[in-house]
Amino acid sequence: MRPPVPESGLYAPPPALRSLTVAPRPSGLLSPGVSVVIPVKDDAPALDRCLEALSRQTQPAAEVIIVDNGSSDDLREVTERWGAQVLHEPEPGIPAASTTGYDAARYSVIARLDADSVPPPDWIASGLRALEGAPLAAAVTGPGDFYDGPKYGSRMLAALYLGAYFSSIRLAVGETPLFGSSFFLRAEAWRAVRSSVHRWGTTLHDDLDLTIHLTPEHAIVYDPSVRVGISFRPFAKWKTFGLRLHRGFVTLAVHWPGDSALLRMRRRILDRLPGENTDDDRLPSPMA
């Protein structure tokens, strides 16, 4: 069991959302297939490239859900051209947009891409194969390669960036994190955590937040075959790169110390001891 995240302090929801209750999803089985969810704001050209790549999948998606987070460009023209479903999420931020898409998914597997991701033709097939090979896992995630980075060294830079991301989060929370540019999540696992994840804010790392709420009850597996093309744009300016780091630190601060790697390990040990109640042994959150 995980200590509850307080609704006040470092990362309180906006006043309009403090009374928000998440509508329950049906308890029945979802149809077999893949729902691809892509949150987007003012990134129509990149989304066009992403949807074109999705149209070339050897195993097509059952549905593609675009969550428009307040775009003012020609997003509608792009989505109509490729026949994608469009949802509108007025609450700003990737957490709100992505969770809206996950909630709307009608199929048994939810796949996530960023608008500037470029999946190879076997991306969906590889993701499903990875899930089948890890029947106890709730999700599989994989790496990316820069398709628009420097002429020399792009693959090495991508490996260094993602290696640092996966290693640092494993060190911080003791779990393999989801990489939002490419992951496959069982819809039943999303149902289990959808009422507890953060659904607001522009300074939260939604992939990391979902990782923390999923684990350790639901395992995440890293599989290098679940690979996509990713854009170098966020790293072209220090400001955008710094924002990514800031989101990661904010997300960890929201969940610490209760979800630190050491306390998670401690709870695992205590859970295996007969008669132990880990609820009584948790450290209080500094935000309470």
Give a structural overview:
The chain is α/β, with parallel strands linked by helices and 288 residues long. The protein has one domain (32-281): Spore Coat Polysaccharide Biosynthesis Protein SpsA, Chain A (Alpha-Beta Complex), CATH 3.90.550.10. It is 37% helix and 16% strand. It has nine helices and nine strands. Helix 2 links the parallel strand 2 (63-68) and strand 3 (85-88). The two termini are 18 Å apart.
Short description:
This protein is of the alpha/beta class.
Helix/strand class: alpha/beta
- Major β-sheet profile: 7 strands, mixed
- Any low-confidence stretches, pLDDT <50, length ≥5? 1-27, 278-288
Q: Helix count, per DSSP?
A: 9
CATH hierarchy: architecture: Alpha-Beta Complex
Number of domains: 1
CATH topology: Spore Coat Polysaccharide Biosynthesis Protein SpsA, Chain A
